[in-house]
């Protein structure tokens, strides 16, 4: 039997519904990533009809990566597995350990299928270069307005899956895992929001996206530092406007990714969620990974198509990580409880902190407006370059 199918049977046999849906979330992310890889950077009109989107490409279709076998995840899956392995090995979020694993991924192919890294975002690559040069993971991430790609959002899900602490600690941890590569507050807020959305699906709340919005506002209104609080609330309002106004478009902009994933999650099955995410083109692997992770949680392991599980590669990478996860779990819904509650501060002593925002930094991050298409545009362009976010 295929390794993934056997894993699904093993997970189902535990009788632990929460744990089963958490594993489905991880597998959903990996499946979504792998299905989206061949279509990355394609325009909408270049995406095949929905019924032709599958683990194998339609005959004659030109993949973005013709030398990459079907069923191969990309940077999304690899970085998510780096985070998961770090959390399991450390028992908490250690930025130093996680950053080391990111460097092992890009340098040595750690957590990459065939040890081959074939896709990496520009902002992430620049941040990893700074990490390699010895910059602290608290300061290595891009912090300007244009450093809001979806590179830290796409890998976040394992944190939300393992974490059973309070909402405020989950949000703080979601912020912190973003810092090594993306430290602008917009990316931090997007990560905090997505973590709560995932928690909403895990807890089977009726409206997880709206619930996450309410919880995130409550967390930010109680934020300990007033200067940070005001920035986070401004960015939260910007996220709300994007979700309300923007049309799904599948770009690599972190808020666009959330908009498109939310639209995809309106579908009634796992495969339809992934196909819808891919149908918007552009950054298809990340959009379908972000949506696929949530869909896995929602529909469970039973909702994962068997043919897609059979076509997914890299079981030899996933199996030992999930085996450790299973060994640490219990038959109750509190699996990982004691460990996950520690996710606020890592053993490296890194405090829960965002960015060293001075007055100029706060002003720069808060002064933008939304154009008629809902795209954030810098109003007070302190750098003088007039770029959009």
UniProtKB/TrEMBL annotation:
<feature type="binding site">
    <location>
        <position position="286"/>
    </location>
    <ligand>
        <name>Mg(2+)</name>
    </ligand>
</feature>
<dbReference type="GO" id="GO:0016787">
    <property type="term" value="F:hydrolase activity"/>
</dbReference>
<keyword id="KW-0460">Magnesium</keyword>
<dbReference type="GO" id="GO:0046872">
    <property type="term" value="F:metal ion binding"/>
</dbReference>
<keyword id="KW-0479">Metal-binding</keyword>
<feature type="binding site">
    <location>
        <position position="76"/>
    </location>
    <ligand>
        <name>Mg(2+)</name>
    </ligand>
</feature>
<dbReference type="Pfam" id="PF03747">
    <property type="entry name" value="ADP_ribosyl_GH"/>
</dbReference>
<protein>
    <recommendedName>
        <fullName>Crystallin</fullName>
    </recommendedName>
</protein>
<keyword id="KW-0378">Hydrolase</keyword>
<dbReference type="InterPro" id="IPR036705">
    <property type="entry name" value="Ribosyl_crysJ1_sf"/>
</dbReference>
<feature type="binding site">
    <location>
        <position position="74"/>
    </location>
    <ligand>
        <name>Mg(2+)</name>
    </ligand>
</feature>
<feature type="binding site">
    <location>
        <position position="285"/>
    </location>
    <ligand>
        <name>Mg(2+)</name>
    </ligand>
</feature>
<feature type="binding site">
    <location>
        <position position="283"/>
    </location>
    <ligand>
        <name>Mg(2+)</name>
    </ligand>
</feature>
<feature type="binding site">
    <location>
        <position position="75"/>
    </location>
    <ligand>
        <name>Mg(2+)</name>
    </ligand>
</feature>
<comment type="similarity">
    <text>Belongs to the ADP-ribosylglycohydrolase family.</text>
</comment>
<dbReference type="InterPro" id="IPR005502">
    <property type="entry name" value="Ribosyl_crysJ1"/>
</dbReference>
<dbReference type="InterPro" id="IPR050792">
    <property type="entry name" value="ADP-ribosylglycohydrolase"/>
</dbReference>
